[in-house]
Amino acid sequence: MKKLLERARKKVDSAELFKVKSKTIPVNFEVNRLKSIDIAEQEGLALRIIHQGRLGFSSLSGNGDFDSILEKAIASSEYGAVSAFNFPPKMETKSKKRLEIYDKRVKNKSVEEMVGIGEKLIDQFRDFDPHLRIDLNILQDYSQIEYVNSQDEDFTYQKTTFSCSIMAQKVETKDILMVYDSISFGNDNLNIEELKAEIIKNLQWSKKIVPIKGGKMPVIFTPKAVITLILPILSGLNGKMVYQKISPFTNQLGNKLWGELFSLYNDGTIDFALGSAPFDDEGIETRRFPLVEKGVVKSFYYDLQTAGLAGVESTGNGIRSGIESEPAPKINNLIMEEGKVPFSEMIKDIREGIIIDQVLGLGQGNILSGAFSNSVQLGFKIEQGKVVGRIKDIMIAGNALTDLKNIVAIGDKARWINGQYKFPHLYLKELSVSTKSN
Amino acid sequence: MREILSRALTKHQNKADFLEIRIEKTENTAIQFQGHKLEKISSSQQIGGNVRALVKGGWGFISFNQLDNLEEKIQEAIQIASLIGKGKSELASTTVAVEIIKQELEGDFRKIDLRVKKELMQNYNDLIMSYHPTIQSSRVNYADRFSTIYYANSEGTYLEQEKPFISISFTAIARDGDNVQMANESIGSTKGFQRAENLSSQAQKAAQRAVNLLKAEPVEGGEYTVVVDQRLGGVFIHEAFGHLSEADFLYEDERMRKMMKLGEKFGNSGLNVVDDGSIPHLLGSAKYDDEGVKTRKNYLIKDGILVGRLHSRETAAKMGEMPTGNARALNYHYKPIVRMTNTYIEAGKNSFEDLLSGISKGIYACDCYGGMTTFENFTFSAGEGYMIRNGKIAEPIRDVVLSGNLFTTLLNIEGIGNDLKIIESGGGCGKDGQSPLPVSFGSPHLRIKKVVVGGK
What we know:
The structure holds 2 protein chains of 2 kinds.
Chain A: H1 2-9, E1 14-30, E2 33-51, E3 54-61, H2 66-77, H3 104-107, H4 111-128, E4 133-149, E5 154-172, E6 175-185, H5 192-206, E7 215-221, H6 227-237, H7 239-243, E8 264-267, E9 288-293, E10 296-297, H8 304-310, E11 318-319, E12 328-329, E13 334-336, H9 343-348, E14 352-360, E15 371-383, E16 386-391, E17 395-399, H10 400-403, E18 407-410, E19 415-417, E20 421-423, E21 426-434
Parallel strand pairs in A: 7-14, 13-20
Antiparallel strand pairs in A: 1-2, 1-4, 2-3, 4-5, 5-6, 7-21, 8-9, 8-13, 9-10, 11-12, 14-15, 15-16, 15-17, 17-21, 18-21, 19-20
Chain B: H1 2-12, E1 18-34, E2 37-55, E3 58-64, H2 70-84, E4 98-101, H3 114-129, E5 135-153, E6 158-176, E7 179-189, H4 200-215, E8 217-218, E9 222-228, H5 230-241, H6 254-259, E10 273-276, E11 297-302, E12 305-306, H7 313-319, E13 327-328, E14 337-338, E15 342-345, H8 352-356, E16 361-366, E17 370-374, E18 377-381, E19 384-389, E20 392-398, E21 401-405, H9 406-411, E22 413-416, E23 421-423, E24 429-431, E25 434-437, E26 440-443, E27 446-454
Parallel strand pairs in B: 4-6, 8-20, 9-16, 15-26
Antiparallel strand pairs in B: 1-2, 1-5, 2-3, 5-6, 6-7, 9-27, 10-11, 10-15, 11-12, 13-14, 16-19, 17-18, 18-21, 19-20, 21-27, 22-27, 23-26, 24-25
Helix pairs in contact in B: 3-4
C-alpha cells in the first residue's frame, strides 16, 4: 500500500488509499432444508486524490493495474469537485479503551457448525407448527480494512459479523403469513433463543385474522418497525441534505421540535455493533454524539468534504457504500434512548388500536418531506388492552416530523435491529390507518 | 479464454454432476450532479468470476476476483456442494450451445470522452436547476457499463456475450418553506450513447412535476377506482404478479404450488401477461440466459388463466416443465436465479377516455417511485397523481401510495387500454440481494376497482 501511495504522490498533490479484503460465507436454508452455500471472496482498492485543489477518484477490484486507476483518478480530478478539506494527519486515538469489533471465533466458525445451528432451529420451529415453511440464513463475514494517506495517517483493522435471519411462512388459501426477524452482531454471541421466541410470539398472535375499520387510532411500533418513522428523520439529519438546504431541519439546529422523550444518538464506538469502527472510511475517529436530545435538534452528521463545505468538523461519518463509492455521510450506529414503559403496559393502555411489526415500502415516496406511507405486512389489533389477532390489507400514512410530536410512551427495553440500530417500542397517540371500504 | 475454462472444467468434471464457470469483465463510468455541483465522476474496471458446482442435488458456489487460482476455486465449490448434496441432481436438459455474441452500439460510450459525457449531463442539470425559482436541488445520474461474460459448463456449452447498458436519471427537488417535493425521470437502454442525447424535455418534465407537486394536496386515504398509466401498470405486473411466477418460490413448497396452479383463473378474460427475453435490445434481453439456455416468449396469463411460469434448469426439471431462459445473475458476485426479463400486459381494446368514463370519484396514478411486494401483498408509490371526478382528470394530488392483495387486484382489473407501452428505465429489479438487475416492463392504461390508497 505505501509503495502504491508513493507512486501516486509522484504524480498528484495528495492521495489516499483504501483497501478491503473480505470473505463472506452464507449458509442458506430454503423450505426447511439446507439449500446452498455461496462463498464470496473480494478484494478492492479505492484511490482518492486531491490534485490542483480538486478531488479525483477511481477504484479497482480483482487483478487490476494500479497505474490505470491512477490515470483515471487524475482524469476525473480535472472536473472533480473543489476539495474543501485535506486528508487527515496521523492522529493519536483519544479513547483509552480499545474498540472490539473482531472475534476470531466468528472467523474460525466451520460451515458444519453453521449448518448445525440452522438444522436445530428448523426442527424447533417445525415442532411448534409442522405446517411452517422456514427459510433461514446463517452468515459469517470477515473483512480487513487498510488505509493510508499522504499525510502519514495509516491504520488497519479486522472486523467480523455473524448473523442469523429467519423467515417463517404459512400459506393458506389466498393468505400468506410471513414473519421475518434477524439478529446480527460482530461476535459469536447471538441470542438466537430470544429471536426464536419473538417469532413464535408473532406467529401465535397471527393465528386469527380480525377485521378492522380505518381512521385515526393509537399505534405501537415494535423496535423492528420504528425505522419507518426514523428513516425520514435520519435523511433530514444528514449534513449533506442540510448543506443543500433540502432538509426540513435546515434552519432548525438547537430548536425543540419534539417532546422530552425523544432522543437519538449516533455512536460508532459500541463493541461489536455493525456500524462500529475505530475510524470512519476516511480516517476520522468515530464517536458518540447526540443527533436529537430531549426533542431538540442537536447535531447533523458529516463526512470531510460536506463538513468542509459547511464550515464545520467531520463527525466521523464518512462511510463508503462499496469500493466503487466515495465516502458520504452515513450513520455509524443509531441509538434511540429507552423510555420507561414496558410493551405490555402500552398494550393495556389501548382500547382500540394497532401494533405494527413489519411494513412494506420502506423509503418509498417523498422521504425528504418526512412523509411516509406504507402497507402493513404484519400488524395486530388491540381491543380493550389485549391483542386480539392479525390485521390485513391496511396502510399507515403520515409525516414523521409531525407524528413524532405525538409520542405517548417509549419502551423500556431497546433491541438491536440489523446490528446497527437500537430501538425501543414507540407508542403514538394516533396515526392514520386506511383499510378496504371504510 | 475458452481453452482455459474448458481445461479447468475437464480436470474436475468427474467429481461433480454439473460444473460451470463464469468470468466477467466490466468497464463503467458514473457521473452525478447534485444541485449545481458535480458530485461524482469516475470510471473503473472490474474483473471477477465464479464457479458453481452441483453434487447430488446440492449447489456449491464461490465468487472471487483473484483469478489466478481457478482450480482451487472449483475444488472449493465441489467441496461445499458435497456437504449439501444428499439427494439426486436434477437439471432440465438443454441444447449445447457454442456462440460468440457481439453488440453493435449506436454510439460506443467506451470511446466517448469523459468530458463530453460530463458536459451533456451538466446541460441537463442546468435545465432542471434554472427551471423555476422553487427548484432547490437536483440529482442527475449518468452511468454506462460494458460487460463481457464468458460462460462455460461441463456439458460443453461455451458462450461469450457482450452486455452494454446505459442509464440516465433526473431528479428535481422543489421547496416552498417546509414543503419539499421531488420528481424523477429515468431512462435506460442497451443501445448506446445516442440514447443519452436529446433528453432535455425529460429533464424539464422532472422539474415541472416537482414544482407542480408543491401545489398538489395530499391524497385522502381510502378505497378508490384507480386508473394507472403504462409505467405504473408495468411496475404492478412485474412486482405484484411477475415475482410469483418465478418457479424458485414454488417448486419445493406444496402449498405455494397449489396457489399458483396452472389453469386457475387469475384475471378476467382479455388479460394476457407475457415475459419475453428474446425481444432484441430491451433491458432484460439476451440471446442466452446465464445458464446458457436460449430465451423465448413465455405466456404467464392467457385470457385470464394462469398458463405458465419462469424457470431455471433446476426448477423446470423439478416441476416437469420446460426451461424458459430465465436464470439470470446480476454479476459475477452472484449465482443465477429465476428472474424476469421483459414483462408486460398485452394491449386491450379500451381508449383512455373509456377507462375514465363512469368514475365519479377516483384516482389517476402515474409513474412510480418504487414498489415492493411480499408474495400476495404489494405497495407502490405513484410519482404523479390526479383525482378523477365525473369521468374527467381533475386536481393534482400527492403522496399517492397504492396497496393491495395481488389475487383480488388482478380480478379487479376492469378495463385494459389499447395503448401498450414498454418502459425502459434506468433502475432495475431486486431479488435475494441481486439488485438492480436490468429489466423492462410495460402495460397499457389499466382501470382497477377497489384499490386501497394510504393517506389522511
